[in-house]
């Protein structure tokens, strides 16, 4: 294993700083950070915080692409800092900003309240179709039924899709990719019977019909959830609902 | 103790210049305008046909002007582009599960292409091209 | 200072905290519940657990088997009444999660699938690919959203418990976005704050695992139990320490030394089993302490692999094939490709043992009650003693559920009988807590740096409290930690802004880690035997006469903790020999 993974490399981090107690508005600051080639951007930030500027604020925890804390704009693209490997950034300068489309609380920390409210609104929990009690054993679910929704259950709520979605940027009322995908995840679950309740939230103008299928959400999703697919599937199903209701009302949904 | 979240406004008319993927999206959306215009021309053609042979001839003649030909070539290219982009994302909206496995995207998208080609051939045949 | 009044306050919104909150909401619907966490619930480190959760469900399994695997795996330091409760509740809790929508892997007939796991004699680990903890956490979090009684306080950093009249009556916490302190006034408090493995230089844990809950309880007088037992996970990435789940071996992966030899057979875990057909409770499915110690042994013998990141052994998954790896271990594959630029489908992966889990924690009884009335604890921060000296993989994801709920039931019962407190005394304590933070901001004379002290703590923990320990090393580490705790009193804050001040938070976290670390080192220094994860080069045998007892560390101000002992509860399984030699009886 002789390679340049452990080679040293000096990187200029250009970071958006904002301290509401001092700054009227955010500004960029540039730091020269000694890095190692195999690091990710988060490692570089941690090194910067520990040995150059302890005042930099950002969120992080797991360093393994699953807690969803460290979403930020890296060279203009929404990324998990722990998944953005320096080897993929050959340029000397890397520009880091807080996630787009969210208010900036401080430095790279964005305000997540809006997403948290929307997530709750879409009822992302099992509303059983046929109620069983746990002592009756598990709901049977075949691997094929599991596959229908598992991909949408992979969402780590990192909010990169909101930072990528221009519709959300222009129309903040849009419930948005991750929340609707999670609603769809439960709608697709063979154990669930709560679709009608969720449709009231998501089959609306603020829901899927705000989506124009830019597809950016799916391109940036670090977990291959494919939120764009979820939203289009909700649109197709809602359209079928509408036709059934208006032209074939004798057919039960 | 002064919380003051800062909101970065999204420029309402120029946001799509920010990223190539937004430009691609706009390209898909803008090309549909040409399909719309072409549809209008078809409607004019029908109206001309209903109005009698003179108007119909004039319509056909207008179609043969360089301006019209240029537009039609452009519209054809854009229509193809628009169709390709939509067919390629069709698997997202219409996943097909056979047994446990989801059909690969290429099967769902490919199905759209096959139907498209067959329909086109049928229309051309019906219109007497062959 | 603003006061928030509630019936039960839960500190920590990971698996244990969320399970407790849901149990309270469902089973005591009239209670007001405050759920406090320094991160949004779905960021909690439960999400990083990969392999699965053990519960008896299949016909070929029995509670007795699960009991004996757990007690033997824990080298008989488990409290057997707690284990008994744990294993009986486990399948109920896992089934409850199924009913809340957890996407467990399934068999073809639609029933829940189980996989083999280290130290377990029967396959009993429920799993959701290699993201079991992630799915458990999100299922719990999303389920919790339907209960209006659960009032969440996301990104609140709890600082001090408020104790008056000999009972815990609330705590103070900093609202991170504004920096202002709140007083939570609660009839009962449940701590579910997770472990403290970040005290070690090389660990699988997230940045948030700094022992805040443990330290808070410890400072308030609740003893920390069995802190010397620190679990090394055998398979971590050598550069980042990232966890590669035990399911890698459960699914048939093997460990090889530099001669491509399956060395575990030389460490009492043989004979060799067929490659790709794992046999339960032997070879690669031995318990974590034994496997980690065997890897250390290979390093000592010069049979480890030299890599750019130091000495490693190989984890070979190639024979599983791409399809199985993608289906059962997709996350492992992603992680290897990201951090090592190596694909386990085509290459052997270098791995090293890495600090993973604290068996020790806040002492609780089987009802999740600490020795401080009004204070309950569950999850990794607690030590109810189901894990003993070595936790078996897939017992902790169940522990957070079983004892999360148990803590909720106990807290609800306690609150019903709780008397009102002395308001003036509690306010005074909260004001003192605020004053300590204000002093940190105002201090201009500080000379010690947070990162510097943290680095020294990491060095001394790695040197003296690692996988093999000695009296000299532990004594040196204990002395160093005592010094660091004194120097900590003189730290300097660089960031003076109140809004989302992570400099302040890392300072508080460092203080918590130092308190817990000293309990680890001193408890270890005093335990002059080898048992489970506590291996002494100078006392190599288990000594049941002297040490079949729990270490209890009591906070003692700036002095090192006072260590006392407590008998282990033994019901049906007297201490025996841990046998991981497979078919050989």
- The CA-CA distance between the termini of chain B, in Å, is 79 Å
Overall morphology of chain C: globular
Proportion of strand residues of chain C = 15-25%
| N-end to C-end Cα span of chain C | 65 Å
Low-confidence stretches of chain B: none
Helical content of chain B stands at: over 70%
Name the assembly state: heterotrimer
Number of helices of chain C: 15
- Output the strand order for the largest sheet of chain B: 1-2
Uncertain runs of chain C: none
- As a percent range, the share of strand residues of chain B is under 5%
Using only C-alpha atoms, the radius of gyration of chain B works out to 22 Å
CATH superfamily of the domain at 424-547 in chain C: Fumarate reductase/succinate dehydrogenase flavoprotein-like, C-terminal domain
Number of strands of chain C: 20
Largest sheet of chain B: 2 strands, antiparallel
Order of helices and strands of chain B: HHHEEH
Mind explaining what this structure looks like?
The complex is a heterotrimer of chains A (253), B (130) and C (585). Chain A has 253 residues and is α+β, with helices and mostly antiparallel strands. Chain A has nine helices and seven strands; from the N terminus they run E-E-H-E-E-E-E-E-H-H-H-H-H-H-H-H. In chain A, the strands form two sheets. In chain A, strands 2-1-5-3-4 form a five-stranded mixed sheet. In chain A, strand 6 and strand 7 (109-110) form a beta hairpin. Chain B is built from four helices and two strands; from the N terminus they run αααββα. Chain B has helices spanning 20-50, 53-63, 66-93, 105-126; strands at 97-98, 101-102. Chain B has a two-stranded antiparallel sheet. In chain B, a hairpin with a 2-residue loop joins strand 1 (97-98) and strand 2 (101-102). In chain B, helix 1 runs antiparallel to helix 2 (53-63), helix 1 (20-50) packs across helix 3 and helix 3 packs antiparallel against helix 4 (105-126). The radius of gyration of chain B is 22 Å and the shape is flat. Chain B starts with 19 loop residues before the first helix and ends with a helix. Chain C is an alpha+beta fold and 585 residues long. In chain C, helix 1 (15-27) links the parallel strand 1 (2-11) and strand 2. The longest helix of chain C has 25 residues, at 502-526. The radius of gyration of chain C is 23 Å and the shape is globular. Classes of the chains: A alpha+beta (253), B mainly alpha (130), C alpha+beta (585). Chains in contact: A-B, A-C, B-C. Chains A and C meet through helix 1, helix 2 and helix 3 of A and helix 3, helix 4, helix 9, helix 12 and helix 14 of C.
